[in-house]
Amino acid sequence: MTAAELSERLASYLTRATGGAVAIAGLRQLPGGASRETWAFEAMLAGEPQPRRLVLRRDPGPTSVDSDRAHEFQILRAARASGVPVPEVYWLGDDPEALGARFFIMEYVAGETLARRLLRDAEYQHARGVMTAQLGAILARIHALDTTVQGLDFLAAPRAGRGAAQTEVERYEQLYRGLAPEPHPVIELALRWLETHLPAPGRETLVHGDFRIGNVLFDADGVRAILDWELAHRGDPLEDLGWMCVKAWRFGGPLPVGGVGERDELFAAYEQAGGGAVDPAAVHFWELFGNMKWAVICIAQARTFLDGGVASLELASLGRRTAEVEHELMRLID
Amino acid sequence: MQDRPTTVELLAAVRDFVTRDVVPTLDARRQFHARVAANVLAIVERELRDGDAQLREEWTRLRTLCAVAADRDGGPHDVDDDVPPADPATLRAAVVALNADLAARIRAGDADHGSFRAAVLHHLRATTDDKLRIANPGYLEEASR
User: Fold this and answer.
1) Which of A120, A145, A230, A275 is most buried by its number of CB atoms within 10 A?
2) CA A83, CA A150: separation in Å to the nearest integer?
3) 3-class DSSP state for residue B142?
4) CA A137 from chain center: how many Å?
5) A262-283 residue pLDDT tens
């Protein structure tokens, strides 16, 4: 579908959804996002004095990793109600016919997501200093969200009789075994390490599942919004802290938390905001898990390319990024 | 025999064209993808240069590991005068099969401790280093600092 065609269909969808004539302007695709498309546009709604700046999130086609725009829409709504900084969501496109794929429309929040800007631009020097503490405090708020009250009972939860850690390890092991076109002894070694180092089951909370630089919208003052909730599930809250420390999300920066902060600072901010005591050994487990998970996602993305589902050079090249993650796994495994 | 430029030299020429002439003419999103394309060409250049030698070394290390494992099992082994298959496709298939065998041993807990674990870790560190020498040498340099 061309941008012009999408713009036209978007206008007729919003006209139906709002019951008044809607004009669309300036539709443009935002960079990044291998597993879904993000478009920014302006909509002139009937009866409103100014155009609204909006964002469309749309599935690009069949993918290997589960994603469901309806669930992401509901999680964003619940998160906002609980004081987590996220864009306000407006319309959920239940009918995939309308725009050729499942989608929803939300508020446009101004800011930057590019890691290299955060790490290098002078404009974000202050943001670099405050971000780690902000992220710790936001995570504490995410983990305090009561999923039973908020109607998020569709979220995947740990399997009965197994802890959150075992459930997650088994989930990605299964994905790996189903998808990897060739054997990966390093991933095998990591899976074995994880299975023999499972942390004792603790609290079970909402887990963002992809809490990292790249999914954090920031400006000169630091965090503006947390994005990309499509991997949210119920589990061990420390999973999010470990994922935040995965090397891939440092984007070449020197420090373990997104390239900009120390682990101790993240943990202290999390505890101060009421997140509960942080066991660094358990976070280490989740950091190793996170690297295994990222390696499996790289393989899954490359597999999407290999199967001919999406002709994307970016997906293809992710197959060769697996080597970086395997190298990090070998560094973390003792 | 084909004339110069060689495959590697031709790929380098295409990569220079993409980086120098194409990238500056594109919008930000396509610039990103063109840089990904140039990077993929650089990977292919390095793999054409060093891929076969790496694969032979990986094959040799895996055969040695098999000998260690066979020693442990008390089974017979005879790998001393083995040489890796000359045909590239056969060599690749042989390494895949050896990796599947190693993966199965790790999964069964054979590499949980002891000298076999040490040998497996040593082999896999050498292998991941080699993979990075082709996929992203800058990453390896940074990580070794």
Assistant:
1) A275
2) 13
3) helix
4) 18
5) 999 999 999 999 999 999 999 9
Query: Cβ of B37 and A314 within 8 Å?
Result: no
All CATH 3.30.200.20 domain ranges in chain A, comma separated: 3-107
In chain A, CATH 3.90.1200.10 sits at 115-332
Is there a contact between B103 and A182 if contact means CB atoms under 8 Å apart?
no
**B91 phi and psi, to 5 degrees?**
-60, -45
In which element (H, E) is residue B65 found? helix B28-73
- Yes or no: say if B89 and B101 are a contact pair by the CB < 8 Å rule: no
Do residues B82 and B42 make contact, with C-beta atoms less than 8 angstroms apart?
no
Distance of CA A61 to the CA centre of its chain: 18
CATH superfamily label, A3-107: Phosphorylase Kinase; domain 1 (3.30.200.20)
Which is more confident, A61 or A280?
A280
Residues of B in CB contact (< 8 Å) with A are: 28-29, 32-33, 36-37, 39-40, 43, 96, 99-100, 102-103, 106-107, 109, 111-112, 120-121, 124-125, 127-129, 131-132, 134-136, 139-140, 142-143
Of A153, A322, A133, A325, nearest in space to A232 by CA: A153
Whether residues A324 and B132 touch (CB distance < 8 A) is answered with yes
- Both tokens of B93, joined, read 């298939």
For residue A127 the two structure tokens come to 């943001």
Mean pLDDT of B122-140: 97
> CB of A254 within 8 Å of any CB in chain B?
no
Domain A115-332: homologous superfamily in CATH:
Aminoglycoside phosphotransferase (APH), C-terminal lobe (3.90.1200.10)
Q: At what angle are helices B137-144 and B114-135 packed, to 10 degrees?
A: 130
